[in-house]
What does this fold into?
Amino acid sequence: MEMFIDPHIHVVSRTTDDYEAMRKAGIVAIIEPAFWLGQPRTEVGSFKDYFSTLVGWERFRAKQFGIVHYCTMGLNSKEANNVPLAEEVMELLPLYVGKEGVVAIGEIGYDDQTEAEDRFYRLQLELAKEVNLPVLIHTPHRDKKKGTYRSMDVSEEHGLPPSMVIVDHNNEETVKEVLDRGYWAAFTIYPHTKMGSERMAEIVKHYGPERIIVDSAADWGISDPLAVPKTAALMRKMGIPEEHIRMTCYQNALTAYSQSGQMDEMDWLKPEPIDQRERQFGNSVLRGGQTPRVEGSDIVEN
Amino acid sequence: MDKIIDLDKAKAFLLEFLQQEADPKSIEWLLVQKEKIQSESSYLKFYMAFGQASRYFKKYLLQPSESQKNEANTLLQGFRPDTWDQLQTARTYLLLHFEERDPTSWVTAMNKLFETGDMHEQQSLYAAIPLMPFQKEMKDRAIEGLRTNISSIFDAIALNNPYPAANFDERAWNQMVIKSIFLLRPLYQIEGADERANPQLANILIDFAHERWAAGRKVMPELWRFVGPFINEENIKDIEVVLQTGDPLQEKAALLACIKSSFDKARNLLDENHVIKEAIETGGITWESIGKEFQETLPK
It folds into this structure.
């Protein structure tokens, strides 16, 4: 079966129906970037519990549906504007960046492009260098072009090699510069806004598959957790070569994020656990009496 | 209750396994980290090293020799290194070098580690509690851990861990056993299962069985182990029901439960099934064999 990676999805806000559909559509691995929750947090403890969820419960939940879950850790640009809180979060981050399955620092960058955002973006670029992790940049939705260029300028100022940086939420206006400067260019497929699948396919036609990454960024808003497989299907219909589809919907994300040393194709190709104790997991996602649907998963009836 | 572990021996014992089984470069890293943790008493360094250990050690199970198994038992009754992996061994080794003189600051430091831990880190921490310098102070944390929905973490407390039997009050102990049954865990791996059996638990489990039967479902055969010593006029009827299910595994479990009973009717049931009774008496049927056989029937 065709395999996909969705390298940007906020699954904490998705249902088990989504997980099931994603697996059925061929998604084998996902990356969940640390982001905000749709409204600003007011306590550092909320960040702590959120980060713990990303490396704990959500990973377990994904596994029950046969999907390998990775995440990125970071302070998002919106919440960087609450400076006292942001400072506390910066103290917390070192505890999480070294955890298993943390594949990047992100999503970080600019929202309003304020001074505070700039300060915490730079601090996190330094953190990424220190722990040798790739960086996932969230480019702003307003004043996008300038914000995107600035994100790259500042990253270069801090000496990060473009090959270690994924610039996300690109569009037709930003893609050329991002690719020319050697960065990974990720595209978020949102229904109605930003990028649609058709536009995405045109971009791949025009620029080819190299360093281009397709993702859904599905979250609590109107969004589509199947955006990656759907875009792949559309690309096929539009006559884009199979290899280009594989690169943009699977391989490029794997190559970019496996630079962390925390993501390995074997995690899903050879999923039998090394640890015999994990062979049968109890579950709480499925309720009593339900039958597990994913063959070879850890789900047992209870 | 708070048994004092010989910490130096424990550290040496854990290191011996790693030296035997892990990459020498990883050992080198471990020893450097250990020194740092000891000398700088920096929380952050300790936490980072605890996390980073996953880059140096694998999750392969330890391969203790028979003499090492015995040694483990001498160090701590019920300590089962064959259920530990290399990574958790390394993490525990680091943890035992984090010296806190008083229980309050130890618990504070540990709680932060528990609260920020990923799945494997939490698993390591819960399994390490019986080796910690302060133990009874960790009771609330261990009980809190049982509330998890992640079964590898639950297992780290409930299975192959001598801590609950030695430290939990009856309420917490019973809750642990009931949840283990609910999650279909291999109950024979619960340390001190027979010693901590109690009539209250037996009653709860009988109610649970009735509830399941009413819904047309089964209960796991190992459940009857906890009822056996408390078989009476009332619940002997349930044992009889199990004996009529036509499921040989269930029947063996019901009869094995009767072995622990001094109730006449339970003894009679055994006599009526003398083939199974004999197999029980000669060690051919044990809770471990029943538990293993049952686990084989679960989806992999």
